[in-house]
């Protein structure tokens, strides 16, 4: 079972693709033996192409010292604080409410104001990115760090609201203004000295992005009728970003922050929705917080198009705090988990992005032109021109990328797609027509820098029924998730196809049907609900989780594994988060000496309140609620993380 969060708005676990399209695997499954499908590996072309991760005998594995990761594994536990493997140090780098802009007041949980919050580190840190300072330098001791601030927990931020969903709906106008100032993102400057990592005070780069920051649309959907509002009759300017889950970088050193669960911020009378089909397909209709009660533009009775202005990838230049963030419409509109790049052989840039909802799809965007490594400014609008595609994972181990291009196939005016802007504003509806594979909640998608393969993290899908099982989503009631591995054809990320295999099926071996790892994985090494991943420079995967079975005493954490060799898919537990928290934003310094993590929503447990939270991590001070924070993990005495 996933963590019980039933009295919460769990912004990562609401909604489902109700488009009614049968799973591609449904047809395939009718021809397959069910037991064989659950085994998941035998007899597939993909296995031949990528190698069977479980073919290593125990004797061989032991002789080889199965994992290259030598840290001492943590036993599964769950308590009010965090834990890391013996021999490592943890340092809290920055917390919600810490000052980052000049003139910011110190954090005072009894006196929160929107004006203070706009100058302080925001709430619920998720994605983290690192950019060297000065740009292009390689010292590794000074970076700009960007952080997404995904959403808020009003029950833990404010006194007197109680717990759960009602708390969010009860927030006052002033509290909503604080919430709006605490989401979005932040840019901070960090530097390493003899005592560890520090935030550089009053950095000229420091910036907060919030739900009111002025932004622009660009690309084919800019100016689209469905983006026009009374505040923006041209459909080209937009205010703010929220639901910023994961993200990515570009090769030219900009930050991509992704709008994920934007639909919950909008309320009104569903009967009055201007485009009911579109709203339904994106889950717009029922507010999960109080924003629409206090701010007109979040009330879709008053501004029917405002929801369409979210669900995009936003590009921000972290080196220029005066720059205008741009919503890049060419990358499509859905619940973007993240957006990470790989380079095609010809220098074009390929961005992978998952739509994180049950039975949603995996996407890819390929720029029309190569990027220019010698002229940063030449890449400025590279994200406005390219091809968005959606993935179909075939039972024979082949993955096909199906282009979402107006005029091609069913994407015609007769079907409601008269322009490419239509395709992009209504990406999910356009994708449905191409019959891609509905997945078990696509979260992070990242390319391994060593083996070039693409790892697609599928966090869970408890709603998949037995007759919806397919080869790429091989379990019904998938409470624990799994990870796919794609090898692009000819090693080229722009190829129209590739091969896929399953890297691991999460859950507890021997308890959860179909759980599969390396056979030497210990009782501590199994994991549940993988979310974001990072690769170290040796190509080893580090998996962070969101939704570990807390009822069974298992915290969300960090698990490392080799991706090749005898230790492939032998996951080992490295870090555990405080109760209620998920782990986000894993990123290594280029020398692998520091692993930064974003510890999100500590204390988000059933019944937890400002007055009586389930943890007061990291301050553990009376009257101070838990604070989402970024931490830095280093090895005692220095050296590479993991081994
Ligand atoms: Fe915000 Fe998909 O996790
Ligand atoms: Ca998640
Ligand atoms: Ca996530």
Helices, strands, pairings?
Layout: H1 24-30, H2 34-39, H3 45-50, H4 58-63, E1 83-84, E2 88-95, H5 114-117, E3 125-132, E4 142-149, H6 154-157, H7 164-170, H8 173-182, E5 184-193, E6 196-199, E7 207-209, E8 214-218, E9 237-239, E10 244-249, E11 255-259, H9 276-281, H10 291-294, E12 313-316, E13 326-328, E14 340-343, E15 348-354, E16 358-360, E17 362-370, E18 386-393, E19 398-403, H11 420-425, H12 427-434, E20 439-440, E21 442-447, E22 454-458, E23 482-488, E24 497-505, E25 530-535, E26 541-545, E27 557-561, E28 572-576, E29 582-588, E30 594-600, E31 629-635
Parallel strand pairs: 8-13
Antiparallel strand pairs: 1-28, 2-31, 3-4, 4-5, 5-6, 5-7, 8-9, 10-11, 11-12, 12-13, 14-15, 15-17, 16-20, 17-18, 18-19, 19-24, 21-22, 22-23, 23-24, 25-26, 26-27, 27-28, 29-30, 30-31
The site of one calcium ion has 7 residues, from strand 10 and strand 25.
């Amino acid at each position: 079972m996933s963590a019980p969060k039933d009295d919460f708005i769990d912004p990562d676990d609401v909604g489902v693709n109700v488009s009614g399209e049968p799973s591609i695997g449904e047809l395939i499954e009718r021809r397959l033996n069910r037991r064989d499908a659950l085994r998941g590996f035998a007899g597939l072309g993909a296995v031949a192409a990528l190698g069977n991760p479980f073919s290593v005998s125990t004797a061989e594995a032991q002789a080889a010292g199965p994992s290259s990761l030598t840290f001492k594994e943590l036993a599964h536990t769950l308590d009010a604080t965090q834990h890391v493997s013996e021999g490592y140090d943890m340092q809290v780098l920055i917390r919600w409410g810490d000052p980052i802009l000049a003139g910011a007041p110190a954090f005072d949980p009894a006196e929160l104001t929107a004006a203070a919050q706009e100058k302080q580190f925001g709430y619920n840190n998720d994605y983290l990115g690192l950019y060297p300072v000065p740009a292009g330098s390689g010292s590794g001791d000074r970076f700009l760090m960007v952080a997404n601030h995904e959403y808020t927990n009003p029950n833990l931020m404010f006194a007197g609201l109680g717990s759960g969903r009602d708390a969010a709906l009860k927030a006052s106008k002033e509290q909503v203004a604080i919430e709006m100032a605490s989401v979005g993102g932040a840019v901070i400057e960090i530097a390493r000295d003899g005592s560890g990592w520090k935030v550089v005070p009053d950095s000229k780069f420091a910036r907060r992005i919030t739900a009111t920051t002025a932004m622009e649309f660009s690309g084919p959907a800019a100016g689209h009728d469905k983006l026009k509002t009374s505040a923006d009759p041209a459909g080209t300017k937009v205010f703010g970003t929220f639901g910023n889950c994961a993200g990515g970088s570009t090769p030219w050193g900009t930050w991509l922050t992704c709008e994920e669960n934007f639909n919950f911020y909008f309320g009104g009378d569903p009967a009055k929705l201007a485009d009911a089909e579109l709203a339904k397909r994106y889950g717009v209709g029922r507010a999960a917080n109080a924003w629409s009660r206090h701010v007109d533009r979040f009330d879709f009775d008053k501004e029917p198009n405002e929801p369409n202005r979210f669900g995009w990838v936003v590009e921000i230049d972290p080196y220029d705090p005066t720059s205008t963030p741009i919503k890049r419409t060419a990358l499509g509109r859905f619940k973007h988990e993240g957006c990470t790049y790989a380079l095609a052989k010809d220098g074009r840039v390929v961005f992978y992005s998952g739509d994180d909802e049950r039975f949603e799809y995996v996407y890819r965007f390929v720029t029309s032109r190569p990027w220019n490594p010698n002229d940063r400014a030449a890449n400025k609008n590279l994200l406005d021109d390219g091809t968005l595609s959606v993935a179909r994972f075939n039972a024979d181990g082949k993955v096909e990328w199906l282009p979402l291009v107006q005029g091609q196939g069913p994407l015609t005016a007769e079907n409601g797609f008269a322009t490419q802007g239509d395709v992009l504003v209504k990406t999910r509806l356009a994708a449905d027509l191409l019959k891609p594979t509905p997945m078990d909640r696509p979260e992070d998608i990242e390319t391994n820098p060593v083996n070039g393969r693409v790892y697609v993290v599928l966090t869970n899908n408890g709603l998949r029924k037995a007759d919806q099982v397919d080869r790429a989503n091989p379990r019904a009631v998938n409470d624990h998730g799994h990870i796919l591995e794609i090898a692009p054809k000819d090693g080229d990320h722009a190829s129209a196809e590739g091969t896929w295999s399953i890297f691991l099926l999460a859950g507890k071996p021997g308890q959860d049907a179909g759980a599969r790892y390396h056979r030497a994985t210990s009782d501590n090494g199994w994991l549940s609900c993988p979310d974001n991943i990072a690769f170290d420079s040796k190509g080893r995967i580090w998996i962070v989780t969101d939704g570990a079975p807390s009822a069974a005493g298992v915290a969300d954490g960090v698990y490392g594994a080799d991706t090749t060799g005898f230790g492939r898919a032998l996951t080992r537990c490295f870090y555990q988060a405080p109760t209620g928290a998920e782990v986000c934003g894993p990123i290594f310094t280029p020398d692998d000496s520091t692993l930064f993590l974003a510890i999100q929503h500590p204390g988000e447990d059933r019944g937890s309140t400002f007055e009586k939270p389930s943890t007061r991590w990291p301050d553990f001070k009376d009257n101070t609620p838990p604070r989402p924070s970024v931490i830095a993990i280093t090895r005692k005495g220095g050296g590479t993380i993991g081994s």
